[in-house]
Amino acid sequence: MEINTRDFGVIEVEEDAIYEFDDGLYGFEDDRKFAIFQKSFDDISFLYLQSVDNIVPCFLVFEPWDLHPDYRPVLTQEDMEICGVDTIDDLIFLVIASVPASIKDLSINIKSPVVLNPKTKKARQVILQNPDYTVRYLPFHKDGKAGA
Amino acid sequence: MLVISRKPGESLILSDNIKITVVSLSNDKVVIGIDAPKEIKVVREELLETIEANKVSNEKINQTDFQGIAVLLKNKKNGNK
User: Scanning A15, A143, B30, B34, which has its CA 20 to 30 A from the CA of A101?
Assistant: First the structure.
């Protein structure tokens, strides 16, 4: 199907790249359907999470382990049940990035990842139980923090 | 920051009309009850932070930024800083 994107105009996406967020995303509760698509630059693929019905909300997302190899997300039992899984291994995790003017300060929200269930095509933004995880992890700084 | 100790069942009063009660304690969790007027918004800090982070992340990204990000990603993969 064709969707209108924020950053790339109209593009074609596969039906199975569409996920339903029954609760929307935090702060964007009105948009329920999102497409995941890839864009390549310099032989690196970037992932986007794009509302199907509007050009925003739209987010650049990453697979967290690419930027945080030791990532160990802990979900609440309630979130696991809503996602319809017994183990987090059955979920796809994506973290939302913020890209400031100084690119080295790109941050990812490792506290509130987006989790997708590829079997049900349902997705949800969860707030993890990990107390040390922050909404502004800096993967291109030492220890993920500024000033280091 | 003001730090006060309370036992389960004990409360604090803020501005005469907000009552915060420690309901129960377990190993690493405190259950807190809040009695407040309807107009007082109560929200978990991480939820508010997530809403803010989502708003910032919703900004359009310049195509030229991707080249820079690609370089940072490659360097990270190669173990450079």
Answer: A143
